[in-house]
Amino acid sequence: MTHSSTLVLTVRHPADSIAVLAAAGEIDVDSAPALRTRALELIRQGSPHLVLDLASVEFCDSSGLNAMISLLRFAKDRYGSLSLAAPQPHLTRLLDVTGVGALIPVLPTADEAVNGLHSASPRPDSSA
Q: Domain containing 67: what range?
């Protein structure tokens, strides 16, 4: 578990190449680097498919959105993916208004995101 002053991160591994990173609290200029660092570690350690569970995120600013976009690029460069799960209504609006929700799949629950990854068959040679 990783703690910052405004953010708590927990991880579970539902499958070999999949990690679910649950964030609780606030993703802001102070905590976004911790989120990004932990997520990059998970991808580098063999979980290129990352689900970011946002169910307990109370606040997210542009630093958090930038971290998400950075994670998407990093995961795709490693033939992986990033999915966002269970954002609160305020975060869903932010994702929609900024267009980030059009770049990154947003699913109602982390389990649905994981199930979607299980049913997908990504190939390294497919263009993303």
A: 2-119
Burial of 127 by CB count in 10 Å (0-12 exposed, 13-18 middle, 19+ buried)? exposed
Q: What is the band of 118 on the pLDDT scale with cuts at 50, 70, 90?
A: confident
38-68 per-position pLDDT tens digit? 999 999 999 999 999 999 999 999 999 999 9
Q: Closest Cα partner for 72 from 81, 85, 64, 63?
A: 81
Instruction: Pick the closest to residue 68 from 96, 119, 27 (CA basis).
Output: 27
State how many domains the chain has.
Answer: 1
Q: In this structure, is residue 64 part of a structural domain?
A: yes
Tell me, what CATH number does 91's domain have? Answer: 3.30.750.24
Closest alpha carbon to 9 in 35, 41, 44, 46: 35
**3-state DSSP: the chain helix, strand, coil percent, rounded to 5?**
40, 30, 25
Residue 38 lies in a domain: yes
Q: How many other C-beta atoms can be found within 10 angstroms of the C-beta atom of residue 41? A: 14
